[in-house]
TrEMBL record:
This is Ribose import ATP-binding protein RbsA. It comes from the Bacteria. Residues 15-252, 269-514 form the ABC transporter domain. GO terms for molecular function: ATP binding; ATP hydrolysis activity. It holds the Pfam family ABC_tran. Belongs to the ABC transporter superfamily. One of its GO terms (cellular component) is plasma membrane. Its main location: membrane. It is found in: Cell membrane. It is a peripheral membrane protein. Keywords: ATP-binding, Cell membrane, Membrane, Nucleotide-binding, Repeat, Sugar transport, Translocase, Transport. InterPro entries: AAA+_ATPase, ABC_carbohydrate_import_ATPase, ABC_transporter-like_ATP-bd, ABC_transporter-like_CS, P-loop_NTPase.
Length: 521
């Protein structure tokens, strides 16, 4: 990484936000926050969900107005950002996690959206627009042309269109909000190269991410918010996981993984085999015949590289995808699971990795999301629902899982990722599962909420529920699981922990995942 020139008193920040406070009815989301970003640097902005990052960026984008007394300066000059158009004129652009493009229009039409070049009459001069954005696409190394329809592009390519639109508008301050969430490893590397290129061109970049590895890879400085206040800024040479976590949540990294030595295998009442998969397969398409067992109260991890078949195996167990062969046994008895309802009826619950698309009803309230799986319990004679009973159930779930929301009436789509995950988890716990499958349980969740989810996992295992945890984060697998099976190319390559004699380490798991497990230790 090329060295960045040090900010000095003589060097004017590209962006300076001073004394920013934002009050909503009954809530102070930001309290006297100040922030500086220099041209030619990547400033990472970190904090738990709810720390105020999004609110601060919405003020920068013109979506929100701050309380009186706040100042925003661009290259030392005060600017009034009254709306998104004013932000654009000030040279500010934000690339949101959920892209704001018109999929039915071409790349050029999206770049010029709202500022179309007109021909002699009222028509749009599409040829002139295509020519006008060709330079910026070439500058970014785009593998598509200005006439390509955006809906035909991949997520990474659509993201490139957003960046092209920002650069075409001569943006000098570019904010990336969780930009790698939907990208593959190769696409992420390409984005990182682009970020470095933009930094070398003197653009000020603000990078928001929960992923520590990305922060180490890209950032020159890291500023941290906690509970709506500015905590401090670390220079690159002072970065460490311990210092960042302590700044974000006010406690040490060592408190996040509290897994105690597993004694359940020695307890016949809690350690009996509760679930068995025998040669379970989808016909070899994504899952080759897989066999494993799960004990009562055990946390079994499923690790492996992306595409190894982890999620596909979980969907077969739950009945979300049809099995083509094999057998499932629950408490020693064969069961048929041909649909999710079959899975639920047998006490198998599956928390999907994509909670927004496949898990939650985002426009519905938290309470309705929690109760929807057991709504039949609340039906009185005549089909009238006992709303008081449903409300009490939702309130109890809020308290036990520490959901941070004003009440169960709040739409679940307005909650942070961690609180959405806890609402979804509450729904599955209401069915009283014997087996709970958690697929990427902390994806898109801040580090404080991760700690709470780990606490919940440990508590559920102590209640005797058998848990299966699928995760791409090795520290998460190591810190939460009693035993781990590792998948590779659709089959179970090996196992660590338990009675294998192999420690649950990243090295041992990666040897199985890569097919070189002869040297596992």
């Amino acid at each position: 990484m090329p060295a960045m020139s040090e900010p000095t008193a003589q060097r004017v920040p590209m962006l300076e936000m001073r004394n920013v406070t934002k009050t909503f009815p009954g809530v102070k989301a930001l309290n006297d926050v100040s922030l500086k970003a220099w041209g030619g640097e990547v400033l990472a902005l970190m904090g738990e969900n709810g720390a105020g990052k999004s609110t601060l960026m919405k003020i920068l984008s013109g979506a929100y107005q701050p309380d009186a007394g706040a100042e925003i300066l661009v290259e030392g000059q005060p600017v009034q950002i009254t709306d998104p158009i004013a932000a654009k004129k000030a040279g500010i652009a934000i690339i949101y996690q959920e892209l704001a493009l018109a999929p039915n229009l071409t790349v050029a039409e999206n770049i010029y959206l709202g500022q179309e070049i007109r021909s002699g009459g009222l028509g749009v001069d599409r040829r002139a627009m295509a020519e006008g954005c060709g330079t910026v696409l070439e500058r970014l190394g785009a593998p598509f042309g200005p006439k390509t329809v955006v809906g035909t592009l991949s997520i990474a390519e659509q993201q490139l269109v957003e960046i092209a639109r920002a650069l075409h508008a001569k943006s000098r301050i570019l904010v990336f909000d969780e930009p790698t969430t939907a990208l593959s490893a190769r696409e992420t590397d390409r984005l990182f190269d682009l970020v470095r290129q933009l930094r070398s061109e003197g653009i000020a970049l603000i990078y928001i991410s929960h992923r520590m590895a990305e922060i180490y890879e890209l950032s020159d400085r890291v500023s941290v918010l906690r509970d709506g206040t500015y905590v401090g800024t670390l220079e690159r040479e002072g970065l460490s996981a311990e210092s960042l976590v302590k700044m974000m949540v006010g406690r040490d990294l060592s408190t996040f993984y509290k897994k105690e030595p597993n004694q359940r295998a020695q307890d016949s009442a809690r350690g009996e085999v509760i679930f068995q998969a025998i040669d379970l397969t989808d016909g070899g398409k994504r899952v080759k015949p897989c066999s494993f067992e799960l004990r009562r109260g055990e946390v079994l991890g499923i690790a492996g590289l992306v595409g190894s078949g982890r999620t596909e195996l979980a969907r077969l167990i739950f009945g979300a995808d049809p099995k083509k062969g094999g057998e499932i046994r629950l408490e020693g008895k064969p069961i048929e699971v041909n649909s999710p309802q079959d899975g639920i009826d047998h006490g198998i619950a599956y928390l999907t990795e994509d909670r927004k698309a496949l898990g939650l009803f985002l426009d519905m309230s938290c309470g309705d999301n929690i109760n929807i799986g057991v709504i039949q319990r609340d039906a009185r004679r005549g089909g009238i629902l006992d709303l008081a009973r449903a409300w009490k159930r939702a309130e109890t779930a809020f308290q036990s899982l520490r959901v941070r929301a004003a009440s169960p009436l709040v739409p679940v789509g307005t909650l942070s990722g961690g609180n959405q995950q806890k609402v979804l988890l509450s729904r599955w716990l209401e069915i009283g599962p014997k087996i709970l499958i958690l697929d990427e349980p902390t994806r898109g969740v801040d580090i404080g909420a991760k700690s709470e989810i780990y606490r919940i996992i440990d508590g559920l295992s102590r209640q005797g529920i058998g848990l299966i945890v699928i995760s791409s984060e090795m520290p998460e697998i190591i810190g939460t699981c009693d035993r781990v099976i590792v998948m590779r190319e659709g089959h179970i390559e090996g196992e660590v922990g338990g009675e294998t004699g192999l420690d649950i380490t990243q090295e041992n798991m990666m040897r199985f995942a890569a097919g070189s497990a002869a040297h596992a230790t």
